[in-house]
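Researcher: Next entry in the queue.
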Amino acid sequence: MDKGRLEAFTDGVLAIVITIMVLETRTPDGYDLAAIAAALPALLAYALSYVNVGIVWNNHHHIMQATQRVDGRVQWANLFLLFWVSLIPLMIRWMNETHFAAPPTAAYGIALAMVTIAYILFEKAIIACNGRDSKLASAIGVEWKGILSLAAYIAAAALAFVSPWIAIALYVLVALSWFIPDRRIEAVL
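Model: Structure for this entry, 189 residues:
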């Protein structure tokens, strides 16, 4: 099965998710400094979510470079990943509308945790399709960064009930950790 179609579909869905996020972000209620300051949390939530979708897109791109072929299992794993990514606009709208109350801030973390789980399953499906001796299998090994990110998202979701801002700080830290390039795939290509 041709992997190009899966890549194109994923690119299209992620572009739509980003478009929905920006369309759902409200403009400030005025043009003075107070109105801009009041809108700043919503704009920062958009920026964080944009980065998270970008991380998924970037990692998806890298994994597909090391993939020779895909099968039905990979396609379903990809759809599962895209389902959870598509919930990100809903989560940030809910956080914004409730002024970052604990339940929606925790739900944002659960959605990010599910994106991480879905990505790991996607990776495993590709490795199963391409074989344990494939370039991707040799590059990945154990997905420590994904596992640590998952643990941080779950902890942040629980901590949202202590302080939503602690949870958001953890979400930002995880996103920042993904800016450190992962050279495993490029090393085998």
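Model: The two ends are 21 Å apart (CA to CA).
Researcher: Noted, moving on.
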